[in-house]
Amino acid sequence: MEWLFKYPSEIWRQGQFVWLSRIPDEIRLLLLLAGIAIAWWLYRRTAGKLQDPSRRLLLGLRIALLVAIVALLGMPALRLVKPRTTALFTAVLLDTSRSMSLEDTAGGKSRIAAARELLGGTNGQPGYLARLSEQTRVVSYGFDRDLRRLPHPEKAEADGIYTNLFRAVRDLESELRAVPLAGVVLLTDGDTNAGGRPEEAARILEARGVPLFVVGLGDPNPPRDHEVVRVFAPRYVRRNTEVEVSVTLRHTGFKDPFDLCLMRGDSVLVKRTIEPSKEGDLRQVKLLFTPDHEGTATYRVSIPPAEGEAVTDNNAREFVLDIADSRLPVLYIEGSPRLEYRFLRRALYRDPDFRVVGLLRLAKDRFYVQDAGSGEEFLKKGFPDTKEQLYGFQAVILGDIEASHFRPEQLRLLEEFVRERGGGLLMLGGVNSFSLGKYADTGIARLLPVEIGSRDGPYSDEQFRPLPTPDGLKHPIMHQSNDPDMNARLWAAAPPLIGITPVRGLKAGATLLIAQEKTNRPVLAVQPYGAGRAGAFTSGGSWYWQVSMPASDEFHEKFWKQLVRWLAIGAKEQVTIELNAEIYARHEPVILRATVLDKNLQPSNDARVIATFLNPKGNKEEIALDWILSEEGVFVCRYIPEEEGSYHVEVRVEGWPTKPSRTGFMVAQPVVEFSEAGLKEDALREMARISRGTYFTLAEAAALPEAVAQAVKGVRDADAIVEDKELWDMPFLLILLLGLAGAEWFIRRRCGLA
Question: Which of 567, 588, 619 is the last residue of a domain?
Answer without folding.
Answer: 567
